[in-house]
Design goal:
With about 120 residues, the protein is mostly beta strands. It contains no helices and 11 strands. The relative contact order is 0.32.
Length: about 120
């Protein structure tokens, strides 16, 4: 079974940093792409970033480009989202999604498998 375990959320002041982790099981590293999404109260889930474990390709939403960095660790079968210069608008529940292949997209329908979310709260 494919399982995704997201963690690393928390409370941070504006300008601070957090690193989210998505531990992947049931997938072989290099066979999947991970998408990072977030959902704020009353809003739709939006794509933030993605990472292809096959070739390291990344993609970012304009709102986080230059502040967030996605990466992967083959030895741990884990994908990370380093979030720097956090803003109150980044407050949301963050989710990781996974799918086969290497296409790195930012739309929810591009991912079959989902982990539970991790809450990120950025105070002003």
């Amino acid at each position: 079974d494919v399982q995704l375990q997201a963690s690393g959320g928390g409370l941070v002041q504006a300008g601070g940093s957090l690193r989210l982790s998505c531990v992947v099981s049931g997938f072989t590293y290099s066979d999947y792409v991970i998408g990072w999404f977030r959902q704020a109260p009353g809003k739709e889930r939006e794509g933030v970033s993605c990472f292809s474990s096959r070739d390291g390709t990344t993609n970012y939403a304009g709102s986080v480009k230059g502040r967030f960095t996605a990466s992967g660790d083959k030895s741990k079968n884990t994908v990370y989202l380093q979030m720097n210069s956090l803003k109150p608008d980044d407050t949301a529940v963050y989710y990781c999604g996974a799918d086969y292949g290497s296409y790195c997209g930012l739309r929810t329908y591009e991912y079959q498998f989902w982990g539970q979310g991790t809450l990120v709260t950025v105070s002003s």
